[in-house]
Amino acid sequence: MTDSMDELGPVDWMVVQFPGTDYGRGQVAPHLQDLVERGLVRVLDLVFLRKDEDGTLEMGEISDLDDSELGELRASEAELAMVLSEQDVSDLAETIEPGNSAVVLVWENTWAAPFGSAVRHAGGQLVASGRIPTQAVLAAIEADAKEGV
């Protein structure tokens, strides 16, 4: 964890679904590991889910997967805070379609920790926040490009 709770950055989560049962064929883990190594994020929790065609759910952790699926992320296992409860994972698993795998990722945005600390020390507080889905941004850019034609 961080040296001081005052230096905790914003924490986000996501569920990423992949077709089939192989968690993205090992193509995603190296990119996440790069973000960790550069100090931009810190993985707080990482859960792997597989849902059979009949809807049966299988949950796994880093220790349950081989290096071809994880790469260097295996080294991060000791640092996980395990912030999700079993109920959280069960609820999130409902979003996964049968016959697919998914990764539930919770991370701290360590790059924003000093900014957040400065805001708090200046008496500021977060009053609104949100995220615009990538697909919506791409659609807006495409629509603007068509209008400019």
UniProtKB/TrEMBL annotation:
UniProt superkingdom: Bacteria
InterPro entries listed in its UniProt record: DUF6325
Protein name: DUF1269 domain-containing protein
